[in-house]
């Protein structure tokens, strides 16, 4: 189960995943494409250069995972641990100086996620060492309408560019343990003073 850094860990792992696989014909000159996480401040300005951006536009609580508990791993027998299961909704944004590079960046990224649709602890442990050994993050494309996509882009200062929506399910964030109840409080009366 991840700490509060689980969301950042998942996004950084995704960025590293793409950076390690970026083909030379895209990463080397004259294209010099890059992969990077984009924040709201980045999107508020005009995007420049050849890049594949990863932009987290929404986090939702997983309805199905909210009432689910996993058994603790190892020798911990303290019972199930409470969690906050969240799904990450992100956009892959291809921005380039030419239509062909933009198309190549987006199609390459889509193929990579189709071939490798799961991230596990090996991708995340450097960012959040509390990620569980058996935890897996599933990345799936989302069918988003053109109207909804345009609404998202309407708030950006950058002009529209190739965009694909994905969901990463499920980052399990650790909550504070629930308080356990002790035995009932009882009182006892002890006689004191002189006995007659």
Q: Please, could you describe this protein's structure?
A:
By secondary structure, this protein is an alpha+beta fold. Helix content is 28%, strand content 24%. The protein has helices at residues 6-21, 24-27, 40-43, 99-115, 121-124, 146-154, and strands spanning 34-38, 51-61, 83-95, 118-119, 137-141, 163-174. The chain has a six-stranded mixed sheet. Helix 3 links the parallel strand 1 (34-38) and strand 2. The longest helix has 17 residues, at 99-115. The protein is elongated and about 105 Å long.
> Could you tell me the mean pLDDT?
84
Structural class by SSE content: alpha+beta
Number of strands: 6
Q: Which word captures the global form?
A: elongated
Would you identify the regions where 5 or more consecutive residues have pLDDT less than 50?
A: none
Helix amount, in percent?
A: 25-40%
CA-CA gap between termini: 65 Å
How many distinct folded domains? Answer: 1
* CATH third-tier fold name: STM4215-like
Instruction: Give me the strand/helix succession.
Output: HHEHEEHEHEHE
Count helical runs: 6
Architecture per CATH nomenclature, i.e. the level-2 architecture: 2-Layer Sandwich
Write the layout of secondary structure elements.
Layout: H1 6-21, H2 24-27, E1 34-38, H3 40-43, E2 51-61, E3 83-95, H4 99-115, E4 118-119, H5 121-124, E5 137-141, H6 146-154, E6 163-174
Parallel strand pairs: 1-2
Antiparallel strand pairs: 2-3, 3-6, 4-5, 5-6
């Amino acid at each position: 189960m991840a700490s509060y850094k689980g969301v950042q860990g998942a996004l950084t792992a995704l960025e590293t995943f793409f950076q390690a696989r970026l083909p030379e014909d895209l990463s080397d000159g004259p294209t010099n494409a890059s992969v990077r996480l984009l924040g709201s401040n980045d999107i508020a300005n005009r995007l420049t250069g050849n890049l594949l951006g990863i932009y987290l536009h929404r986090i939702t609580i997983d309805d199905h995972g909210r009432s689910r508990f996993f058994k603790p791993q190892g020798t911990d027998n303290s019972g199930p641990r409470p969690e906050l299961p969240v799904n990450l909704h992100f956009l892959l944004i291809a921005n380039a100086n030419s239509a062909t590079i933009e198309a190549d960046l987006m199609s390459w990224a889509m193929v990579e996620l189709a071939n490798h649709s799961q991230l596990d602890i090996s991708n995340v442990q450097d960012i959040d060492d509390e990620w569980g050994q058996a935890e897996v993050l599933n990345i799936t494309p989302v069918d988003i309408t053109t109207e909804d996509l345009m609404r998202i882009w309407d708030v950006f200062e950058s002009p529209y560019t190739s965009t694909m929506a994905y969901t990463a399910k499920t980052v399990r964030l650790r909550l504070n343990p629930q308080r356990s109840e002790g035995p009932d409080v009882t009182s006892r009366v002890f006689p004191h003073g002189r006995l007659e």
